[in-house]
Amino acid sequence: MREFIFDCVDTTRFELRILEGETYQEFLKIATDEEMLYYIGIPSNEVAEEKKKAQYGFRTYNKSYLMFLIIDRETSEILGYCGYHTWYLEHDRAEIGYGLYSDNWKGKGVMTEVLNTVLHYGFTEMNLRRVEAFISPDNVASLSTVKKFGFIKEGQLRSHYVKGDNVEDSVVYSLLVNEYNSMNSNK
Asked: For position 104, which CATH number holds?
């Protein structure tokens, strides 16, 4: 297997492997199914769908993508992802998304630990001034998570996402850099 080098950021329990738009797109074009599983955690039955994304690209002149894969430091298992799947370069804002691949890791503080690092990275390294979250009104765990970090509810978008055969609303939350800095200066 070839060796691919990805930048990483660490938390107490996890390594966060950084997938930037261009780097990830190039990786998807050349990686074997085995390499996809090893480096990204994508099983072979999902490789074709993931590689299809590379055909369209992850970056345009005004938008980009920056995702962190969550890797358990003890087992090297890829647990999920957290990052900015829609980063508006001209406006210094990004939409955050996150998820865990297995229910075994839910309720164990993974996303709280990871989100703390990812938000810090967004505001300090990416120079974001605003982070947005669009969450299903039924996703109680995710709603609770963003509230822990001081995200403010702004409203609800009707019929915003299609999930399977269902059309769902999204509750809109945001966190501004000055709110983030204020919360973290008190720690």
From this structure: 3.40.630.30
Blockwise average pLDDT, block size 10, the chain, 187 residues: 81 92 77 83 81 70 86 92 92 95 91 96 97 96 95 97 91 98 83
Give the span between the Cα atoms of 70 and 61, in whole angstroms: 28
Q: Give the predicted TM-score (pTM) of the model.
A: 0.85
Chain center to CA of 84: 5
Instruction: Give the ranges where the chain is alpha helix by DSSP (H).
Output: 21-30, 33-40, 44-56, 110-124, 140-148, 177-185
The Cα–Cα gap between 100 and 36 comes to 17
Domain region containing 157:
130-187
**CA 114 from centre of chain:** 10
- CA dist 135 and 133 (Å) reads 6
